[in-house]
């Protein structure tokens, strides 16, 4: 619902986007991006890396064959071990307490954060999806089932079966005592975290097959469909409070405070107020005309830090937008080919997984006045 209780549905076709009022468009700058200064390169034993994770000042990585941990001030990884998964790791490491979860379609492994030694593993019965961690639990999909295991011991706590022959590939979401999952059958399920019992289910096949990303913030769920919609959903009963239609497929949305930020191939970065679904601001990346300062596509997940939105395009240009109004603050060109992920360590340093399986740390682009 909108602020006055009415339904909010924002639908933006490419035509309406291009002729919309310019007052929503901060000024674009055409200055060429300067190369970012390289600070350190870490070689890993992987041919391909997933996006890395930052936890308590340390970097955790995984990829084709190995998982590891890096202290940014050190020249070599603190540890690096074969993860022994049936195939390559497919998602960024998840870290909670003294445990690190890595995995791919063939299973997941729980490692000791201190040295990478194995604690337990789950071998896929069908195909494992992306997990979510909370307190002492890890919850993930295996085929059409949602499975919960004890984070410390790996003991199975419960499993919930959705519709056979569907695939729970995307991460569930945990909010309070409940697990929320949209596993590919057009239904959003709310399960009890302790027991796996069904609390409620909402069938929404008309709107989605998968919910490819579900986040919780400000007391509600913000979920993206596999197509072009972003939804605000009430966690109590699954009611759709608002939906934003971007006019084309959207990349994974990123939550920062009360904003959901996303890029649409219509040529815009949007910042959506998650309480109302209204557009707080938008920044044009592409006008599909000749010349100009058009960006390449954004396949890397957006990131944020210290009031800035980090965007990385497929031509390896990093741009920082102001989270307050969407203005372009600065940009820089990564010295090398990036595997489409960006991780700010702090306000001065940024890490990228590279196409050759290494991790590159550079200086963040300079912002005038900082």
List the helices and strands and how they pair.
Blueprint: E1 8-11, H1 14-18, E2 34-35, E3 38-42, E4 53-55, E5 58-62, E6 66-70, E7 79-82, E8 94-96, E9 99-104, E10 107-112, E11 118-123, E12 132-134, E13 137-142, E14 145-150, E15 156-161, E16 173-175, E17 178-181, E18 187-192, E19 198-203, E20 211-217, E21 220-225, E22 229-233, E23 240-245, E24 254-256, E25 259-264, E26 268-273, E27 279-284, E28 303-305, E29 308-312, E30 317-322, E31 328-333, E32 343-344, E33 349-353, E34 359-363
Parallel strand pairs: 1-23, 2-31
Antiparallel strand pairs: 3-34, 4-5, 5-6, 6-7, 8-9, 9-10, 10-11, 12-13, 13-14, 14-15, 16-17, 17-18, 18-19, 20-21, 21-22, 22-23, 24-25, 25-26, 26-27, 28-29, 29-30, 30-31, 32-33, 33-34
Written account of the structure:
The protein is mainly β and about 375 residues long. The protein has a domain at about 1-30 and about 250-370: Lipocalin (Beta Barrel), CATH 2.40.128. Helix content is about 0%, strand content about 45%. The protein contains one helix and 34 strands. The protein has one helix at about 15-20; strands at about 10, 35, 40, 55, 60, 65-70, 80, 95, 100-105, 105-110, 120-125, 130-135, 135-140, 145-150, 155-160, 175, 180, 185-190, 200-205, 210-215, 220-225, 230-235, 240-245, 255, 260-265, 270-275, 280-285, 305, 310, 315-320, 330-335, 345, 350-355, 360-365. Strands 1-23-22-21-20 form a five-stranded mixed sheet, with no helix packed on it. It has a five-stranded mixed sheet with strand order 2-31-30-29-28, with no helix packed on it. Strand 33 (about 350-355) and strand 34 form a beta hairpin. The two termini are about 40 Å apart. Residues about 1-10 and about 10-30 have low confidence and may be disordered.
């Amino acid at each position: 619902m909108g602020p006055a209780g009415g339904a909010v549905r924002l639908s933006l076709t490419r035509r309406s986007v291009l002729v919309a009022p310019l007052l929503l468009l901060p000024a674009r700058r055409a200055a060429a991006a300067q190369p970012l200064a390289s600070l350190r390169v870490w070689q890993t034993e992987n041919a391909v890396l997933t996006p890395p994770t930052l936890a308590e000042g340390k970097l955790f990585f995984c990829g084709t064959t190995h998982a590891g941990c890096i202290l940014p001030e050190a020249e070599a990884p603190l540890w690096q071990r074969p993860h022994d998964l049936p195939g390559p790791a497919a998602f960024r490491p998840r870290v909670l307490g003294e445990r690190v979860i890595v995995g791919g379609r063939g299973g997941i492994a729980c490692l000791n954060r201190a040295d990478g030694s194995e604690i337990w593993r789950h071998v896929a019965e069908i195909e494992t999806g992306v997990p979510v961690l909370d307190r002492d639990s890890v919850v993930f999909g295996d085929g059409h089932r949602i499975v919960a295991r004890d984070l410390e011991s790996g003991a199975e706590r419960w499993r919930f079966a959705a519709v056979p022959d569907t695939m729970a590939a995307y991460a569930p979401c945990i909010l309070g005592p409940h697990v929320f999952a949209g596993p590919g059958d057009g239904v959003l399920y709310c399960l009890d975290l302790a027991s796996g019992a069904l609390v409620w289910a909402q069938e929404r096949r008309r709107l989605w097959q998968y919910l490819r990303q579900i986040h919780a913030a400000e007391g509600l769920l913000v979920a993206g469909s596999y197509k072009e919609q972003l939804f605000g959903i009430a966690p109590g009963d699954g009611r759709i409070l608002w939906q934003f239609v971007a006019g084309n497929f959207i990349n994974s949305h990123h939550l920062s405070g009360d904003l959901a930020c996303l890029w649409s191939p219509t040529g815009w970065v949007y910042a959506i107020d998650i309480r109302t679904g209204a557009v707080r601001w938008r920044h044009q990346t592409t006008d599909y005309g000749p010349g100009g300062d058009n960006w390449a596509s954004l396949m890397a997940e957006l990131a944020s830090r210290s009031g800035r939105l980090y965007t990385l395009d497929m031509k390896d240009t990093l741009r920082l937008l102001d989270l307050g109004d969407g203005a372009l603050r600065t940009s820089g060109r990564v010295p090398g080919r990036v595997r489409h992920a960006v991780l700010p360590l702090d306000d001065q340093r940024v890490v990228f997984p590279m196409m050759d399986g290494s991790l590159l740390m550079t200086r963040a682009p300079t912002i005038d006045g900082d």
